[in-house]
Protein: Haloacid dehalogenase
Organism: Halolactibacillus alkaliphilus
Amino acid sequence: MKKPEAIFLDMDGTLLREDNFVSDETMATIDAVRRAGIPVFVATGRGQGEILTRAPKGFTVDGIISSNGMTGYLGEELLFQHTLDFPLVKEVIQAAGEHNMYYEVFPTTGEGVALKKDQPMLAAEISGEKPADILGSEWRERLEALDGGITWVDTIEDVGYSKFYCFSKDKEKLAKWKMTLEEIHQRYPFSTSSSTQANIEIMVTEKNKATGIKDILTKINVKPEHILVMGDSFNDVPMFEYAGYAVAMKNAPDELKQMADDVTALTNDEDGVSAYLKTHILNNG
């Protein structure tokens, strides 16, 4: 692998440990990579307001692509921002209520929101013990959301929303929800993606992490064949296909590993990103 001209890192399952935080070690390694002259960017499915709160004080990157490519910043400069049609937002929330589907809808800035009247419905979805096939980090974050991690509102105002996050521990229920979204899709354009088997995210059509990376590369004059990306989930597929060099986490599904040029020796919970960057970037000649 040649020295990349830019690096793009996923968050959940990649930068974040299972406690949903970036470690001090990983932050120090990213700082060292940036001092070596390689810009580092975050490319995440998380909303803009969910990112820096998950990192140590002083965590700095060269830019952020959030909500799976819906919003992009180069430093403090807003490069692009895509929002869902507001009639679609209202219809999805109404349908979620009718189907008892857990949802969070994310403004372009700030934390996710949900209707106060839907709080019991959302709470019911994460009652009881965590199922064995649900990631601990995802389950933990839903508990945090209900305990103040999202904003409960009386009405959803038209302030511009970048994505929906929908969750269910019931695979059959999630499959039925996909069918409902397909029916809604006949009236409104949007795309969907899943970072785990327990969620569905709704975004602006034909926008994803790769389109966001493309916009940033155009601005910094770097070709896609000269970048390295790291991720662990299926919402990373577009950037794996776009980048010159893709690295899957050890904890990634086998299907994603097969798409990658390399796989980390350690998992996200073992600071796999830090170890990989030290070995292949900082200590590689």
